[in-house]
Amino acid sequence: MAITVNLRYTGKKGAAQAFAREMISSGTVEKIRAEKGNLRYEYYLPFGEEKAGEDSSETILLIDSWENQEAIDLHHATPMMKTIATLREKYDLHMTIERFVSDDKIPEQDKAFIRK
Length: 116
What we know:
Blueprint: E1 3-10, H1 15-25, H2 28-34, E2 38-44, E3 59-66, H3 69-76, H4 80-90, E4 94-101, H5 108-111
Antiparallel strand pairs: 1-3, 1-4, 2-3
C-alpha cells in the first residue's frame, strides 16, 4: 500500500519554478528518487487552476510517492531535508499538502473508463 503526498509549492515572481529547477540541477531530486522506498518524485505545473487571489503560474505540484510510512520517515531523517528546507526558505515558498493511501485495486466498474 503506497503513500502518495501531493505538495503544492506557491511563491511569487517565479520562485516556485526556480525552486524546482534548483532541486533538479543540484542533484537533490535524483538522490531522493534513489532512496529506498521512493516510488515517485515528480514536479508538475498546474494548468488553468486559478482561484481567487491565486495565480497558477506561481505554483508547482510535487507528487511524492513512497512504499510505506517507514520509507517516508527514513527520508525525513536524511540530510536532504535540510537542503529542501533551506531552499524553501530561500524562495519564500508556502505549501499545501494532501496525503493519499493507495489500495492498488481498480474496481471493475471503473476499468471501463480507462483507455490503455
